[in-house]
Design goal:
The protein is α+β, with helices and mostly antiparallel strands. It has helices at about 1-10, 30-40, 60-70, 95-100, 110-120, and strands spanning about 15-20, 25, 55-60, 75-80. It has a single domain (about 1-120), classed as UDP-galactose 4-epimerase, domain 1, CATH 3.90.25. Helix 1 (about 1-10) packs parallel to helix 3 (about 60-70) and helix 3 packs across helix 5 (about 110-120).
């Protein structure tokens, strides 16, 4: 979703939002994910561990932030929401915090700025 929005904004294309945009998502910067995976590989734990960012943003908030940071004048267009689209995505990272001493450190704005610089 983030890379689609960034690509659309940088090309001056409309930003496509499915539904009303009030559904929430959690976004994680790749460096945080890699750090969590490395810590998990060193842990003596056989089960799954959620590695994500529990901070939620609406899809509309993400689109507005992408437009702000890219300086894009792209309009936002809405398409029908797929039936199976969840209203909320927020991982529970309490096990990763306890077991690995891990939490994400890169905020959405900072991660977007880094990603935009790499794409430009």
């Amino acid at each position: 979703m983030v890379s689609n929005f960034l690509g659309q904004a940088l090309r001056g294309e409309p930003l496509t939002i499915y539904g009303d945009g009030r559904q929430t998502r959690s976004f994680q910067y790749i460096d945080d994910l890699i750090e969590g995976i490395v810590r998990l590989m060193g842990a003596d734990y056989p089960g799954p561990v959620n590695l994500g960012n529990p901070e939620e943003f609406t899809v509309l908030e993400l689109a507005a932030l992408v437009k702000e940071l890219t300086g894009s004048r792209s309009p936002i267009i809405h398409r029908p929401l797929p039936e199976d689209d969840p209203r909320q995505r927020r991982p529970d990272i309490s096990l990763a915090q306890r077991l690995l001493g891990w939490s994400p450190r890169v905020a959405l704005r900072e991660g977007l700025i880094k990603t935009i610089a790499e794409m430009a």
